[in-house]
Amino acid sequence: MVVKKYKPTSAGSRSKQVQDYSELKTGQNTEELTSRKRKELRTETKGLRRIQVAIPKSVGRNNQGKITSRFRGGGHKRLYKVIDFLRSDKAGIPGKVDFLDYDSSRNCRIALIVFADGEKRYILAPTKLAIGDSVMSGPMSPIKEGNALPLANMPLGSQVHNIEMTPGKGGQMVRSAGLSAQVIAKEKGMVALKLPSGEMRWVLERCYATLGQVGNPEFSNQKLGKAGTLKWRGRRPRNRGVTMNPVDHKHGGGEGRCPVGAASPYTAFGKPHGLKTRKSKKSSTKLIISRRKRK
Questions:
Q1: Strands, E, within 17-158: which ranges?
Q2: What is the DSSP code string of 142-176?
Q3: Which of 87, 130, 236, 283 is the most exposed place for a label (fewest CB within 10 A)?
Q4: pLDDT for the residue 42
Q5: CA 117, CA 93: separation in Å to the nearest integer?
Q6: Of all residues in the chain, what percent carry a pLDDT higher than 90?
Q7: Is the pLDDT higher at 31 or at 73?
Q8: Of 295, 290, 285, nearest to 200 (Cα)?
């Protein structure tokens, strides 16, 4: 990915750095995959509409209409492209990369795979995956970037992503742009992984993972330039608790500007800042070799 800079013609463009999408090319020629070309490709490709789902406008709300995720809403209309995180159900069936595409719901690139049986699926695109490359999943797949294998079949030192935590559930770990985990040990049906956070943990050797590093590693070099760019993505402004009413936040209310007080600061839900609220899952926690944060 190449970062594109703008001339400082306004305050919003002075420090703005965005992606230029030059690596998004079709499988038919080397033209850039423009929005018009992508629309033509969708209408020509059978079955591609089936793996795209419209995102509802009730963003951040549950089935009762209550807000469960604050400061979400608005933004541009977009489609959710269904990704095949479970690669094991296409074991032994070779596929070919038709084209690389942009996904509005994640920060990495995705690749459309056309399998030998005619089915089309999106997968997370690794760094070195190119149009026309062949990919495969299953225990007998070659050690090649983009192929999905059980962790038991991967050599030590391999870089992997889209890692399952439970066999057959699909990849749950290491799915963001530029991330990869490393296979460091194998013992008694378990494989030790070093995750991008620095945590080391055991995973069952039957769990599938994909070889390689997740693509689009320069995503973190972007600079939005202005607050409106984040609002286009459905992220609304976050205001402080002291500016709210007492009914909305524990810090709210008072005459004029009031300090939080002698008591420790609280969250919007009445919990002290720093209080651990994560419920310990013994089945998962006991597999951690060393945490990313030392106690």
A1: 17-19, 52-54, 79-81, 95-101, 110-115, 120-124, 134-135, 148-150
A2: -S-TT-EEEGGGSPTT-EEESEESSTTS-EEES-S
A3: 283
A4: 56
A5: 8
A6: 55
A7: 73
A8: 290
